[in-house]
Here is the input.
Amino acid sequence: MTTNLSRRSWLQRSAMAAAILPVSRWYQPDSYISRSGSPFPASIIRLNSNENAYGPSQAARDAVMDSLNEANRYPRHFMASLREEIARRENLTPEHILLTAGSTELLGLVGLVYGLQGGEVVACNPTFDFMLIYTERLGCRWSRTPLTSTYQYDLQGLAKATGPDTKLIFICNPNNPTGIEIPNGELRAFCETQAKKYPVYVDEAYIELSPNGRESSMASLVDSNPNLIVGRTFSKVHGLAGLRIGYAIANPVTIDLLANFHIGRGMTISSASANAAIACLKDAEFEAYSRRKIIEGREMVCKAFDNLGIEYMPSAANFVFFGMINSIWIQSKPWKRKIFSSAVMITFLDGQE
Here is the structure.
């Protein structure tokens, strides 16, 4: 069911919905203390951080165990093999790849490199704001451009917002928290034009879950556009959020720039994490299964919303953004609100990458 809400009305309702959800900002520590393998009872279904409920695959689990034989060694061999495997998959070279501890570390690294330059970072609002808040702490301004009337990333607005002080343009596609994908042709044209003038970062944490999957990626543009950076993660479709594996795809010149600021000599991931990621890239069957099951769950939620008359955004990610109607949540008891909110895979500000 598509929505006819005005943008102001939608944001007001969405903010109201967010206010009753059990959300946590990225900078808040985990308050749970684990006494066994998991701090959560087996009856709890966790859907509040945009995680993959189906992974990791058996191949990834086996790869973790196999890597323990080399746990006394630094992970250089596994990291080199992972870079080669990613490069092969993207038809690039290992010099186009930078590995990080999840795409969250990559976002912080890029925020550091460009945020220290002062000026401003241009991005729409709302979007995944980790990098943007981080750059603000470094003294860089976040120039906020509202989404369009159809809740799309406003590419024309972003272009108009750029100027002499622009140090970076940030784009999240599909966008978090709305879940909406930017039309491929429009984004490609934008990146090719703007990357000639400014560094452009495209966050593709959910790209595999979009209708055309990785075919919608901007990765094929990095050779001819040195200012373009594409960020990816193994946290979503591959189910490795707890192992912390992310990576940048960019021109080797830009990769070298980022590597100069990467802490720990660039070795912030473990042998186990890297080997698990290699196994994931070779396990096409599980990747297809994971993608299919997540999309089935997304469609199930949307169908339930249609039946309940709840307005929501069409999603190309593993969550659905919706506006709750007063009569639904006011009449619900608190515990029912929590279960209902969690069951629809929705977070407004959480959703680590």
